[in-house]
């Protein structure tokens, strides 16, 4: 596995890989866990070469979110990626990504605004901006993102369509299904913040979501099903529910009733020191 941290060597390295076959990009911020490795394995099944980027993107952290405390473990991450057969690690320095005088922001209205966007102003601008840059830098045949961050995936797909990035700069954007623990809890680095009792209680999240989805499919009113979900979470030990919404799967417009277009149930709820997010097809 080759590691590069400046743009010019990146372009040369990607050109050499592309001459040998298709290139898949897996963008990350490092601190890799099983969820990331699942993306890498999915990428390896789809392309001859996998490029992983590790960049803790300052533009997606709010002023009250602790960018400095975000885990950085490049040597350990690099060893994991090497063992997974990754061809190239793109680990740019901040000055390569945002050189002095950098002034461009990408803002995707609508799909960025509700749900997590309402709690984290500017977050999805930062994500869209850095992912657009990564697509331009690597120009992969395909890019893979976890469905766990469904809103992020929807923002990236909207941005790629709107800016005509699909085809010249990335051929396909693939969402990889969420990896779950045996009790159904979505894997996340945030699960590590939970005490054993909170961790056990957290399994109520996927359970309550499945119950709400079944209730809606059985004809219950969406509002009543979501109220039931919220009560189930508070009863199980969650401190609060930031949102629980049935949305159009693509635009993320809230739905008051289940129509024929693909829908998604998205939830963010707090337990202990963790804010957990999850989503499921509904
Ligand atoms: O999901 C993440 O790790 C980040 O938001 C991403 C897509 C790598 C952009 O910094």
UniProtKB/TrEMBL annotation:
It is found in: Cytoplasm. Beta-alanine binds at residue 60. Its EC number is 6.3.2.1. It catalyses: (R)-pantoate + beta-alanine + ATP = (R)-pantothenate + AMP + diphosphate + H(+). Keywords: ATP-binding, Cytoplasm, Ligase, Nucleotide-binding, Pantothenate biosynthesis. CDD domains: PanC (cd00560). SUPFAM superfamilies: Nucleotidylyl transferase. HAMAP family: PanC. PANTHER family: CYTIDYLATE KINASE/PANTOATE-BETA-ALANINE LIGASE, PANTOATE--BETA-ALANINE LIGASE. Homodimer. Belongs to the pantothenate synthetase family. This is Pantothenate synthetase. It comes from Novosphingobium bradum.
């Amino acid at each position: 596995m080759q590691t590069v941290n400046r743009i010019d060597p990146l372009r040369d390295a990607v050109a050499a890989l592309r001459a040998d076959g298709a290139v898949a990009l897996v963008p990350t911020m490092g601190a890799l866990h099983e969820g990331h490795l699942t993306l890498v394995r999915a990428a390896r099944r789809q392309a001859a070469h996998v490029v992983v980027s590790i960049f803790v993107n300052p533009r997606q952290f709010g002023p009250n979110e602790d960018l400095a405390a975000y885990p950085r473990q490049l040597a350990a991450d690099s060893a994991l990626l090497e063992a997974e057969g990754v061809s190239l690690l793109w680990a740019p320095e901040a000055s390569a990504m945002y050189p002095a005088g950098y002034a461009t922001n990408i803002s995707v209205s609508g799909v960025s605004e509700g749900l997590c966007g309402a709690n984290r102003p500017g977050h999805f601008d930062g994500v869209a901006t850095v992912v657009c840059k990564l697509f331009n830098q690597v120009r992969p045949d395909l890019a893979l993102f976890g469905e766990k961050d469904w809103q992020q995936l929807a923002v990236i797909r909207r941005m790629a369509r709107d800016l005509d990035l699909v085809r010249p700069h990335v051929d396909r954007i693939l969402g990889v299904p969420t990896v779950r623990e045996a009790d159904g809890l979505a894997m996340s680095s945030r699960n590590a913040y939970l005490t054993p009792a909170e961790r056990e209680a957290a399994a109520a999240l996927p359970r309550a979501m499945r119950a709400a989805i079944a209730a809606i499919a059985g004809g219950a009113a969406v509002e009543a099903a979501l109220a039931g979900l919220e009560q189930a979470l508070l009863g199980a030990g969650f401190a609060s529910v930031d949102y629980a919404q049935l949305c159009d799967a693509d635009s993320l417009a809230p739905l008051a009733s289940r129509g024929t277009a693909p829908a998604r149930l998205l939830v963010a709820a707090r337990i202990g020191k963790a804010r957990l997010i999850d989503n499921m097809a509904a």
